[in-house]
Amino acid sequence: MIFRQLFEPVSSTYTYLIGCEQTGKAVLVDPVLPAWQRDLEEVRRLGLELAFTVDTHIHADHITSARKLKLEAGSRIAHPAMDQLSCVDHPLQEGQPLTLGGIVLEPIFTPGHTDGHHAYRVGERVLTGDALLIDGCGRTDFQNGDARALYHSVRHKLFALPEDTLVFPGHDYNKRRVSSIAQEKARNPRLGGDRDLEGFIKLMDELDLAYPKFIDYAVPGNRECGVCPPDVPESLDEYCDQIGDSQQG
């Protein structure tokens, strides 16, 4: 299996490229709109063909490039079924792996950051999206977020994976790239150690985080699998600045 971790600096998002050496097919997990050309070039540089894009959830801090990559590369859009997006070609749900040659992508329903969030296990790795970050977790104060649900998702689902499972998060803001289930269980300051449910709920309730600056554009755009709304202000253009570019001219 080919595995690449790609970083998009505007939203500090990790995109994951997973390729099957036998079939030459590839999957991109959580691709970001401004980086679609880079991602597609990397797929092709490796001699692969993009078969699917997969998102962990409806993002609030960036717009997915799923629709753009479908237009440019003919890939199919896979997304958690419970979000009921009409633009999705392949709905995903826990217990029904996405198999592509030697790649087996196992959806794990991990609500809490959003009500439809899924992580994806791929062999000895788990792509945790915004549910579990390195020494942290996603916020729970919008998009039907729920601290109680996130605690259950992480402590009873993700932390139940083998301890040597590698944790690849959806974001990192401190240039960290990978952790492990054992490490997060032992030292994650929000969810690790002996953190109990009520303590976690209290912690999340008291974070007092700023309103996400791009959420009002990202959420409707992502409900259409990657459309940048026409009213994005100039100050946020960097989130959409490559949507008009095309390798097809």
UniProtKB/TrEMBL annotation:
Keywords in UniProt for this one?
Metal-binding
Pfam families attached to this UniProt entry: Lactamase_B
- Which SUPFAM superfamilies does the entry link to? Metallo-hydrolase/oxidoreductase
**Entry keyword annotation includes Metal-binding:** yes
List each copy of the Metallo-beta-lactamase domain by range.
12-171
One GO MF term on file is:
sulfur dioxygenase activity
What GO biological process terms does the UniProt entry carry, in alphabetical order? glutathione metabolic process; hydrogen sulfide metabolic process
Supply the InterPro entries for this chain: Metallo-B-lactamas, Mito_Persulfide_Diox, POD-like_MBL-fold, RibonucZ/Hydroxyglut_hydro
**What PANTHER family does its record include?**
PERSULFIDE DIOXYGENASE ETHE1, PERSULFIDE DIOXYGENASE ETHE1, MITOCHONDRIAL
Q: What is this protein called?
A: Glyoxylase, beta-lactamase superfamily II
Organism name: Ectothiorhodospira magna
